[in-house]
Amino acid sequence: MIQSKLSKAFLLSMVIIIMLPLNAKDKPTDLVNVATEIPTIHLDIKYATTDNFTGKKVYPVAKCYLRRSVVEKLKKVQEELLVMGLSLKIWDGYRPLSVQEIFWNLVPDERYVANPKKGSRHNRGAAVDLTIVYADSGKELLMPTAFDDFTEKAHADYMDLPAEAINNRKLLSDLMTKYRMFQLPTEWWHFDDADWQQYEILNISYADLD
Length: 210
Prior knowledge:
Layout: H1 2-23, E1 31-33, H2 34-37, E2 42-43, E3 65-67, H3 68-83, E4 86-92, H4 97-106, E5 127-134, H5 163-178, E6 181-184, E7 187-193
Parallel strand pairs: 2-4
Antiparallel strand pairs: 1-3, 4-5, 5-7, 6-7
C-alpha cells in the first residue's frame, strides 16, 4: 500500500514537472510591455497621438507591447547602443488587427501597409518600428526620413542622402540584423523578427493588456 501511494505521488510530481513549462509565467510567445522589460528604452508611440499619417489618435495609450522573444533581442541591441551613449526609440510595436483595417482603408498599398486579410507582422507582435536617439537627451540621430514616409527616400537601399543619415541607418540595420531582426525594404525603421511566422495574428485591444 505504501509503495502504491509513493508510486502515485511520484507520477503526480512528474505530471506537474512536465506541465510547468506550459503554465510558466514567462513564455516567449507572451505579449509584454516593452518599457517594463527595458526601462532605458525611449518611447514615442506615434499612433497614440495625432502625429501620424492618419492624423488621428488610434491607440488609447502610449504603450508598446511585443512578443517576449522579440523583446529579448531588443534588450541586446539596447545594451550595445548604451555603450555608445545611444538608445533605441520605438514608434510602434504590436498593433491590433482592427487598427490594421483602419490603416488599409487609408493606404491600400502592400509596400507600406499589410492587407488585414493577410495580417501584418505588427498584428503578430513580431514587428517593431524604431530609430536611434542619444540616450541622455532623447534627440534623434539623423535618418533618411521621418517616420511613416511613403516615398522612395524611406527605402532601405536609397542612397541619395547625406552620409550621416546613411551611416546611422546602417548602424541600426546592422545591430538589428545581428539579433535576427530584419529590415523591411520599403521602410528603414521597420524590422521583423526572423521567426514571425510562428506567432498568430491577434486582435487584443490595449484595454485588455497589462
